[in-house]
Design a protein that fits this description.
Layout: H1 7-11, H2 24-28, E1 47-48, E2 61-68, E3 86-88, E4 91-96, E5 99-104, E6 110-115, E7 130-132, E8 135-139, E9 144-149, E10 155-160, E11 175-177, E12 180-184, E13 195-199, E14 206-211, H3 227-231, E15 242-244, E16 249-253, E17 275-280, E18 286-291, E19 307-313, E20 316-324, E21 329-334, E22 339-345, E23 352-355, E24 361-363, E25 374-376, E26 390-392, E27 397-402, E28 405-411, E29 422-428, E30 432-437, E31 443-448, E32 457-459, E33 463-467, E34 472-477, E35 483-488, E36 498-502, E37 505-512, E38 515-521
Parallel strand pairs: 1-32
Antiparallel strand pairs: 2-38, 3-4, 4-5, 5-6, 7-8, 8-9, 9-10, 11-12, 12-13, 13-14, 15-16, 16-17, 17-18, 19-20, 20-21, 21-22, 23-24, 25-28, 26-27, 27-30, 28-29, 30-31, 32-33, 33-34, 34-35, 36-37, 37-38
Length: about 525
């Protein structure tokens, strides 16, 4: 079924919607009429309790509206919607590099469009916005945090996060916790330190700053050979983290160490790169950290979403955190203290000698990059990447798009190298959704997508929404992996769908190419 959209919707004049402010309590306990954060809520589960659209009636899903974000001036990788829209008070807010839009969530009419001035930043993509009160917050390609008025898109202020001349990228959707706006940075070309910062929502001033490489004397500093290696060690914070309000801890996946591929000049485990860390949200102090890839030399950052949930593990009720990491292994930890509980492969990787007592994969020295090249699985793109996973607490399944991929890793520099000290030629096999049982790490089912690159959403209607490599939006039975509905759109989906209920009607909204597509049940269902 191909989507047909009435031209009338696109010709109607923009409307101005005025809603109530988004309070910290409304973010903490979002209603079914909203999707107020990048992942929907603080847990990162991307799971909705809505079930009006369900496995029994999803075949009647049909187009509600489409909005195309045209004439915005972006190019290349940035010309597609990689953001997850947020929805608050009947308005959707979404981004592409240098642009923010507000769109009526009921009919797709544009409310306002903000365009950031031309700049020399890296325009590789933009993940979305955060909201608090009547303000929208977004990162720009040249690494500023910008605050906009949610009602009209007028700029309130902008503050520099990082120096884009040092080839930092700023692409993530900020995370709002109380009176904190948490921002992060990306970058690989120069050996800069990664970090997180908390910013004041009214002024944009820094509240705290945390470097991913520890200072001398701090836990983890002993895992670097010297201060010079630490100060140029990478460890970027590309993606949005998660948060436990009871523990007052934010959880973040940290990127790979620098120089990329060459580890001779940074002997040791290189903490806290390729790690999952827990920080006190009020102070930025490290509570605990767990490294999933010690001394990484394959560009396997661990920035994949650390999903939070409570559940039984080995007969005991635990506060859990799970991540399907780029290195091909699935990890389960106790999020209160970082205790390791489970490590299991979710693809057939070939780079390890086994698992150590801490649950970490043991690197095989024969799989290090070499001058002549070394065949390794997964590729540098990873067994998983930035595409949003999902978790269904009702069935205990963790869903991730995985790739059985390979690279030939070459070393192009030795000793105290800089930046990319190697390269790789990679082959990515078609992406596959895997439904992983968090208690065992075993896959319950798989669903081939024909390519890699889609985020996921699950709902209480026993559905999983995804996109394949042929421009299809899919609704899949979340317990069996069977396709129940699909439709064709003009481009491939990148980030995950969202869902919300307004006026008694459940919407599913997906970004594909440069457009948003909204779906509802057809009349009579």
């Amino acid at each position: 079924m191909r989507v047909w959209i009435p031209t009338l919707v696109l010709l109607l004049a923009p409307v101005v919607l005025c809603g109530q402010e988004l309070t910290p309590d409304a973010i903490l306990k979002p209603g079914t009429d909203s999707w107020p954060t990048y992942n929907g809520d603080y847990s990162g589960q991307r799971h909705s309790s809505l079930d009006q659209i369900n496995a029994s009636n999803v075949a009647s899903l049909s187009s509600a509206w489409m909005y195309r974000a045209s004439n915005f001036g972006a190019a290349g990788f940035g010309s597609v919607i990689k953001s997850t829209p947020i929805e608050v008070n009947g308005v959707l807010y979404f981004t592409m590099p240098d642009n923010v839009w507000a769109v009526d969530a009921r009919n797709g009419r544009e409310v306002w469009h903000y365009k950031y001035p031309p700049n020399e930043g890296g325009h590789i993509g933009q993940r979305g916005v955060a909201m608090l009160g009547d303000s929208i917050y977004t990162e720009t390609p040249d690494c500023y945090l910008v605050s906009l008025n949610a009602k009209d898109g007028k700029e309130r202020w902008r503050k520099q996060i990082a120096d884009a001349k040092l080839e930092y990228f700023c692409t993530m959707s900020p995370l709002v916790v109380g009176n904190h706006i948490i921002t992060g940075v990306g970058g690989d070309s120069l050996d800069n330190p990664g970090y997180l910062e908390s910013r004041d929502p009214e002024t944009g001033e820094v509240q705290w700053h945390w470097n991913t490489e520890p200072n001398a004397g701090e836990p983890g500093s002993e895992s670097w050979p010297d201060a010079e290696a630490r100060s140029h060690g990478g460890g970027m914070t590309w993606m949005t983290g998660t948060y436990d309000p009871d523990l007052r801890l934010i959880y973040w996946g940290i990127g790979n160490p620098n120089p990329v591929h060459a580890g001779a000049g940074r002997k040791g485990e290189n903490l806290w790169t390729c790690s999952i860390v827990a920080l006190n949200v009020d102070t930025g102090k490290l509570a605990w950290g767990y490294q999933v890839s010690p001394h990484d030399t394959h560009d396997w950052d661990a920035t994949q979403t650390p999903i939070l949930f409570d559940g039984e593990f080995n007969g005991k009720r635990r506060t859990l955190l799970a991540q399907a990491s780029r290195n091909g292994f699935f990890f389960v930890l106790d999020r209160s203290n970082g205790e390791h509980l489970l490590t299991a492969p979710f693809i057939n990787s070939n780079w390890t000698l086994g698992i150590n007592a801490k649950g970490q994969p043991i690197p095989n020295p024969k799989k290090e990059p070499t001058r002549d090249g070394t065949l390794v699985s997964p590729s540098s793109n990873g067994a998983s990447n930035w595409f949003a996973p999902s978790f269904n607490p009702a069935v205990g399944l963790f869903y991730v798009v995985a790739s059985q991929s390979y690279s030939i890793f070459y070393l192009t520099a030795e000793g105290k190298a800089e930046g990319f000290a190697g390269r790789d030629d990679f082959l990515n096999y078609p992406g596959t959704i895997k439904a992983i049982d968090y208690k065992t790490g075993q896959s319950r089912w798989t669903h081939d997508l024909g390519g890699m690159g889609t985020g996921l959403l699950t709902t209480a209607g026993n559905l999983l929404f995804a996109g394949d490599n042929s421009g299809h939006i899919l609704a899949i039975d979340s317990t069996t992996g069977k396709t129940l509905w699909h439709t064709t759109v003009v481009a491939n989906q990148a980030n995950g769908a969202i869902t919300y209920e307004l006026d008694g009607k459940q919407y599913v909204v997906v970004g594909a190419g440069d457009s948003l597509f909204a779906f509802v049940l057809s009349t009579g269902h």
